[in-house]
Give the backbone structure.
Amino acid sequence: MTTDPGVSPSSPVTSYHVHSRWSDGVAIVPDIVAQAHSLGLDEVGISDHFVLHPDTPDIEWSMRSEELPRYVSEVLASAAQSQEISVRLGIEADYIPETIDTLKEALALHPFDYVIGSVHFMDGFPIDEHRRYWDSLSADQVNQTWLGYYTRIVDMAASGAFDIVGHLDLPKKFGHAPTADMTAAVNAALDAIARADMAMEINTSGWSLPANEAYPAPWIVRAARSRDIPIVITADAHTPKYLTRNFDMARRLARASGYTQLALFERRVRRLQDM
Ligand SMILES: [Zn+2]
Ligand SMILES: [Zn+2]
């Protein structure tokens, strides 16, 4: 099976935000790698969920903390076996203030190529689990949740534990737009991301949501460009057929926002290459 990823053959195509059965994806790692090759990718990175939640040890959609070494071994084994394309060892780790030191210690034990930092929880509140949590909020609580979320992003960047910020405006997932102006909060988050020398993903999964736009929104991509924040284009794929979903649209968004390069990662070192 081949699908046009919407790019010229000379530019490197990566897909770095990919979930396997180690968390909430449907496929095993070797099958993801095989599909990545048939889609024409140059690099595929596996980035399963890793959540050290202080109150809930078993998050259904995350690997358990003790599974991390086996996850790493399996991805590295696939990387060693893959002749045609590069397989990167990534992870999507939650930033949670109470567990950030433990997280850093856990990640330091393994040769990751990149770490995606995401905020899926605001204290007890699950940002993207189900719309019913948002439906129960008043308009003021919705605004406070958005503002608190961006403050978490600032803290996440300052922690220095992450290479790429995941789905930056995640609270829009179920359509609960803030009524308050978020410009200052978003700018503060982007300033912190730039200070931390992190990259940002244009995550195409947002186009399949009510928002019908990538994470983050186009105005945030432009604001990131003005701060020279590097980008990667990712699909947040939970099934291999979506490894390059809407990548053509993401490239158009990136170019329209002034980007000419994409970031690549190896052993947590970033380089930029022309799109
Ligand atoms: Zn996520
Ligand atoms: Zn994800």
